[in-house]
Fold this sequence. Notes:
The complex is a heterodimer. In chain A, 74% of the residues lie in helices and 0% in strands.
Amino acid sequence: MKLGGPRLAAILGVTLAVAAPMGLLFYQSFLSAPFFDPSARFSFEAYQYILASPDFHRAFASSFAISLCMTIIAVPLGSLLGFLIVRTDIPGRRWLEPWLLVPVFLSPVVLAFGYVVAVGPVGFFSLWAKSLFGTVPWNLYSLAGLIFIAGLTHVPHVFLYVSSALRGVDPTVEEAARVTGAGPWRIAVTVSLPLVRPAILFSGALVFLLGFELFGLPLVLGDPAGLLVLTTYLYKLTNLLGVPSYQLMAVVAISIVAITFPLVYVQRRFMGAAARYAVIGGKGRAFRPLPLGALRWPMTGLVLLWLLIVVVLPLAGVALRSVVRYWGEGVALSEVLTLDHFRELGRYPNLIRGIVNTLLIGSVGGALAVGVYAAVALSAHRAPGIWPSLLDYLVLVPRALPGLVVGLAFFWLFLFFKPLAPLRTTLFSLWIAYAVVWLAYGLKLITATLMQVSPDLEDAARVTGASPGLVYRDVTLPLIRFGLLGSWLLIFMMFVREYSTGVYLLGPGTEVIGSLIVSLWGTGALDLISALSVVEVVIVGLAILIAIRLGVRLDA
Amino acid sequence: MPELVAENIFKRLGGAEILREISLHLDRGEILALLGPSGSGKTTLLRCIAGLERPDAGRIILGGKVIFDAASAHEVPAEKRGFGLVFQSYAIWPHRSVYENAAYGLRLRRTGAAEIKIKVEKILRRLGLDAMAARYPHQLSGGQQQRVALARALAYSPPVLLLDEPLSNLDAKLREEARIWIRELIKETQAAALYVTHDQTEALAIADRILVLDDGLVQQEGTPEEIYARPASRFVAEFMGSNNRLEGKIAETKGSRARLEGEGWSLWGELGASKRRGEKSAGIIRVERIRLAGDGGENRLPMSLKSASYLGERWEYLLVASELQIRVWGDKALPPGDYSVEFPPEALWIF
């Protein structure tokens, strides 16, 4: 096969979409003023300023501490959860699994807001606890509180990889340990989990990486305590100085990437190791789950407690807050109930536009993105030469970029290139940033679907007389139809819950629920935030229900 | 003029030489079996001919037209070669009905709707699939799926049919029946066929001619009878049939015959390779050619029967004498004891 037109277009498109924003960030970081300022010249001033700034040092230290501690919390819990769900007779394994993945589809900013109104100093549950104990036994607005919540909400990321790796392990190795006399706990620690060590390492590196990209949680929870992390430091930088200090923002963005990119690379190495281990998998033989025995109910309790903290608490908080007029000590719930906040949404045209835009970018934008991802994946599918591995590396770049940074880079790009300027205030600017942020995820979804098409099916069409284009049209695409639909649903949810990418691109015409919540948080409009959050959770919740109904795997 | 010619096909995959200068020709209407153990390169050769793999060297000519030539970098893509190919996995398209699977090749050839209907219905009827035309692959049994794969490959009347272990996924009973009707079917269509298999019985039953492959090389070429009765090498001798092997040294030679000698035994056999006196050699003899005789005589050895196992259509005896241990077939239960075993010299090949 030759390097045809479509393949060349895919190569150029992906390279451009990834390299242009990245290159602009890099360029801006070496200027003495914003790139559009005629006085801007090449300089290291911005680096000197940022690297000498005590705020930056503190933000870096907090980011590092949070990343490390949340990894320490999430990895053991996620691995244990994976073992319990995949291998043991813990009650309700089937219906429990989708719930375990729900936090992945919830916007962190909504979650954070939920925690504030549920267990913040005057939260619903805090006041309830105070009425019981006389004091609130926890402090949400602290480094410890932030770490605790960040750790618990990232358990699903570990669970996802560990559980899928465990499914590939032949259960007879565990049965052998059992017959030898090992109990379930011993089997987990000495047989099952060591066998999936690459997946555990991989997910550990992932969580550590995600720690540096946290934005919604530290923005909402760290703010009252004056706690800054790298991303919130970047976000606050404009306000700190009072002038658009693009060069400083670029330096902070570059330093985040300087940390995350090596992490992504390390992670990739772990993934290679994981692929080597995967061959243990035997046939899809039905096997009897390991009986937990006396541990059965304590373990169930542990899982439910985790679900309570990570899903029920924040969502209940958001829901409750959206139907009360105000809340505080001594307020009786029955006296303040109202639906006014939802009615109030209608009085703000930008909020209504935000909801419509969110639905549009999720559905239409999601479909377009899946189309683009499918075209790119197909161009590398069974392609000879270096394109598939080149694509692999290109995809690493957006994975290392937090949404906030990608949004910023695209915002600048639309300012920088005059021909693109009119697009800045349209949903297209948001869409392309979203598409780049979720490029790796989307490609993974489509590639996994393509892998299920046996090469023989395509070869059969070729021998029968179909040209490569006809093979895609008549065989490959019809066979991955369902996979594409599933990918669309998942991308829809990711686009709806996205909040950080839109923060810098937020303007009239590009409002979405996520970035509106971030900007409203600065104004303290809790009533509107709670109503918007409920709208977002309902949209994502419906999508999850449809996905489960259609049999789409949420853990793709 | 042969329908298909492959000349000096050389193929390297990840450092390993899969095909080392293999040549073959296929005449019009002929069925040629590529027979070899797994890893012998037979499927790779088939895929090279189909255009799914690209040989590193060699030339392929179909119907007088060069479809591949490594020297001039000329390559007709797989879809323009016009073969019919039956995959080991069948590879029938799960999203198309039986009818649509079979009709696809004709549609690509822009055949008229009426003609497609006639041709597809004819091939489906011939394969006993006419009642299942509207069904989808997942509603079919393994044997039916296999026939759909054949129907799809034959529907557009390709001049050469390529079959890659088409029966290996069927159970034993179906496989035995299929050997017979597949040969009939191919002969009816008058297509030439290249049939890849690792099953010698299948190759013997289906092919007009057999090419035995091993280690990327042609080991022997000939009719089924020639391959079975006159193996040219120790590999072919041992690969075909059920055999006994006797390890020894050449004691003397006389014309085409030689006397093989071991500890406490010596037998005359046919020399299959040039050997000198004192050289280590192996005698190969098909199990069915050994006879139990009542008393001593020429080329016989006294051996003692250790066990007799019942295999259904025959008995298998295990006989031993010092270091020798051989299997012999017979039609009745025999008690343990001493027997005289005859090794006809023309059936004992020395390599």
